[in-house]
Specification:
The structure is a single chain. With about 170 residues, the protein is mainly beta. The protein contains 2 helices and 14 strands, in the order ββαββββββββαββββ. The strands form 3 sheets. It has an 8-stranded antiparallel sheet with strand order 9-5-6-7-11-3-2-13, with no helix packed on it. A 3-stranded antiparallel sheet has the order 1-14-12, with no helix packed on it. The N and C termini lie far apart (about 35 Å). The N terminus is likely disordered.
């Protein structure tokens, strides 16, 4: 027993191997980086990224890793995995909602597996507040890697590869 009891029945995630494939953080339609309706992301200032215009209000882990941060307003989650620093940002200007319509399912320091639920969002509430609900997946330390490339377009499911990260 011992060590693995700490994970409550879960083995620790396998180390990330490169090239790493990051999966869609939500079910919906892929939005290319240049089309994300937020200049901070579409310009690449936050690193190479892509978005998913969600068709349901659930956000999932794109890779096995550790939660490095969870915004007090629950609209953004940081994830560390194999040297990658990932930001999953839900919506544009949704920080103005002060957490309304968002529920976190994880805590900082928690280990998560690819496909595990990170948070839920009320798409109707986000729309009523006048914000796009695009779920953005950014590799914030893009410069630490040889390449971060988009993989998908059109409709995606959680688990569909959307970004490839190469060392």
């Amino acid at each position: 027993m011992g060590f693995f009891n700490l994970f409550k029945g879960k083995e620790p995630p396998a180390p990330v191997t490169f090239p790493a494939e990051l999966s869609a953080p939500a079910k919906g339609t892929v939005v290319a980086m240049e089309q994300i309706p937020d200049a901070v992301f579409s310009s690449g200032v936050m690193g190479v990224c892509c978005g998913v215009d969600p068709s349901e209000g659930k956000v999932y882990a794109p890779v096995d890793g550790t939660i490095s941060q969870l915004a007090d307003t629950l609209h953004a989650v940081g994830l560390s995995a194999g040297g990658m620093e990932l930001l999953i940002h839900v919506g544009v200007d949704t920080v103005d909602m002060n957490g309304g319509g968002f529920k976190g399912a994880v805590k900082p320091g928690q280990t998560v597996r690819k496909g595990e639920l990170l948070l839920t969002m009320d798409l109707a509430k986000i729309a009523a507040a006048g914000h796009p609900a695009v779920v953005i997946l950014a590799v914030t330390n893009t410069d630490d890697f040889a390449a971060v490339e988009p993989l998908a377009s059109g409709e995606v499911q959680p688990g569909t590869g959307v970004l490839r990260v190469s060392k």
